[in-house]
Amino acid sequence: MGAFSVDKMGARQSYANVWHTDLMGTMSADFPYFCFALCSPCASYLLRKRALYGDLSRYVCCAGYMPCSGSCGESRCPEFCLCTEVLCCFANSVQSTRFLLQDEFNIQTTKCDNCIIGFMFCLQQVACIFSIVAAIAGVGDLQEASDLLSCFANVVYCSVCACMQTQHKVELDKRDGKFGPMQAPLPQQMSRMDQPVPPAVGYTPGYAASPYGVQPFPAQPYPGQPYAGQPYPGQPYSAQPYGTNPY
After folding, report:
1. In Å, what is the CA distance from 82 to each residue of 43, 59, 100, 155?
2. Do residues 163 and 27 lie in contact, with contact meaning Cβ atoms separated by under 8 Å?
3. Residues forming beta bridges with residue 180, ordered by sequence position
4. Nearest 10 degrees: CA dihedral of 11, 16, 20, 24?
5. What residue spans carry the region label Disordered (predicted)?
6. Which of 168, 149, 146 is nearest to 157 (CA)?
7. Beta-bridge partner residues of 108
8. Which of 61, 52, 57, 56 is nearest to 81 (CA)?
9. Model confidence pLDDT, tens digit, residues 102-157
10. Alpha carbon 44 to chain centroid distance?
11. d(C-alpha 208, C-alpha 235), whole Å
């Protein structure tokens, strides 16, 4: 599991697509949702459910990315298991939804986003070590400094998690066509033969088979939206809805 995770993390850096908005731009992209995610863990529950296309029968703990995945009785009560994951393993629930979206749509994480997430993790570790040292030393000033560092680390943690969830929400809005019809992807973006196989969980029926077990993008255009350059049946190219003939 560990080797697979390391290989998969490296593979995600070579994905062809990027997030619709980076972490630095999430507050301006959807500030109300950022506030909601900052104040309520329900955002993580709702985002995972939405990432699974509302079908919790497909739910697996931590989206199949952790050793415990599939052995927690998820099939018997997925709603309860997802609530437990969000409340007891909040960071994992956010990160698992992130991995789920990245593997479905071949989304890489930018270096800037990686730096922000890495800074959050490092700050948490430093604050923990500092708290242990302060408790052992028993010095009042050192304990106060430790408390301030822990408070700052918690603020950063909550803010970054809220930004990540807002980023996921914006990406799901894009997937669901809330920014207008999605364009058909280029052929080279639809095949990832050189990548390891991620867990085939959480994908909607109708996605064509691919080396991943699911197709990163729909194999056919969305209903009522033919590919550019293809006329409706029985219509010449001059009668295309796009108004031009690409040929």
Report:
1. 12, 8, 15, 25
2. yes
3. 178
4. 60
5. 220-247
6. 149
7. 18
8. 61
9. 999 999 888 899 999 999 999 999 999 999 998 888 877 888 888 999 999 999 99
10. 10
11. 28
In 10 A of CB 245, how many CB atoms? 12
CA 215 – CA 208 distance, rounded (Å): 5
Contact between residue 77 and residue 126 where contact means Cβ atoms under 8 Å apart: no
With vertex at residue 80, the alpha carbon angle to CA 155 and CA 201, rounded to the nearest 5 degrees, is 85
In tens, the pLDDT along 20-69 reads 999 999 999 999 999 999 999 999 999 999 999 999 999 999 888 888 88
Q: Helix/strand/coil (H, E, C) string of the chain?
A: CHHHHHHHHHHHCCCCEECCCCHHHHHHHCHHHHHHHHHCCHHHHHHHHHHCCCCHHHCCHHHHCCCCCCCCCCCCCHHHHHHHHHHHCHHHHHHHHHHHHHHHHCEECCHHHHHHHHHHHHHHHHHHHHHHHHHHHCCHHHHHHHHHHHHHHHHHHHHHHHHHHHHHHHHHHHHCCECECCCCCCHHHCCCCCCCCCCCCCCCCCCCCCCCCCCCCCCCCCCCCCCCCCCCCCCCHHHCCCCCCCC
CA dist 120 and 203 (Å) reads 30
